[in-house]
């Protein structure tokens, strides 16, 4: 089965940095994704990691350690519009592209 | 990036009726589409994988006779919720995989279904 854990909620101040952790135990691994989802909207793609290490993309960075079953999403220079739910998802199967999602972390950015 | 649309964006129906939701890839051909359901404050749960020209593959616990999926063309998949009940009220989201991309799925905007 698939088990993906991430914190339920986080709060941070505008301009600050927040790190959202995700741990996973899956029957297979073919990559880890982070998505942003605003209430009532579809998820939007943020990042993809398949090899160990840090991927940086503007204010957002994502890290992966396959041996530890661990990833984090780092949000820098937080803006009010970053208030959203952040979903960690794992692609577990080779060639089936199915995603298993964590429950999501609701980030609230305060002025 | 690629665009996926869903129709309708929201629908209210009475118990016992059926509702069809369409998912279209607008600027690419999607051999594989996925249907998810999301209850309030919960994450996305994969319901089924829709493959063009073949039967859908359903996840464990999802009733295939209740949630009918048809992927008749490379740009269209439909989900029909048959004999809807209030507990089927949820946010239904589709995604489509672009064969030209190694990993990315593109999500539709979702359909809010309310069964009264």
Question: What's the short version?
Answer:
The complex is a heterodimer of chains A (111) and B (116). Chain A has 111 residues and is mainly β. Chain A has no helices and eleven strands.
Characterise this structure.
Chain A is an all-beta fold. Chain A contains no helices and eleven strands. Chain B is mostly beta strands and 116 residues long. In chain B, strands 2, 4, 5, 6, 9, 10 and 11 form a seven-stranded mixed beta sheet that branches. The N and C termini of chain B lie far apart (37 Å). Chains A and B meet through strand 5 and strand 10 of A and strand 5, strand 9 and strand 10 of B.
Helix content range of the residues of chain B, please? under 10%
How many DSSP E strands of chain A? Answer: 11
Please bin the fraction of helical residues of chain A: under 10%
List low-pLDDT spans of chain A.
Answer: none
Overall strand count of chain B: 11
- Judged by helices, strands and strand pairing, the structural class of chain A is mainly beta
C-alpha Rg of chain B (nearest Å):
13 Å
Average pLDDT rating of chain A: 93
Number of helices of chain B: 0
Using only CA atoms, what is the Rg of chain A?
13 Å
**N- and C-termini, Cα separation of chain A:** 41 Å
Q: How does the major sheet of chain B shape up?
A: 7 strands, mixed
From the structure above, extract its key features.
heterodimer, A: 111 residues, six-stranded mixed sheet, B: 116 residues, mainly beta, seven-stranded mixed sheet, four-stranded antiparallel sheet, 11 strands
SSE map:
The complex is a heterodimer of chains A (111) and B (116).
Chain A (H helix, E strand, L loop, with lengths): L2 E3 L3 E5 L4 E8 L6 E6 L6 E6 L3 E5 L2 E6 L4 E6 L8 E8 L7 E3 L3 E6 L1
Parallel strand pairs in A: 2-11
Antiparallel strand pairs in A: 1-3, 3-8, 4-5, 4-9, 6-7, 7-8, 9-10, 9-11
Chain B lengths: L3 E4 L2 E4 L5 E7 L6 E7 L6 E7 L5 E2 L8 E7 L2 E6 L8 E8 L7 E3 L3 E5 L1
Parallel strand pairs in B: 2-11
Antiparallel strand pairs in B: 1-3, 3-8, 4-5, 4-9, 5-6, 7-8, 9-10, 9-11
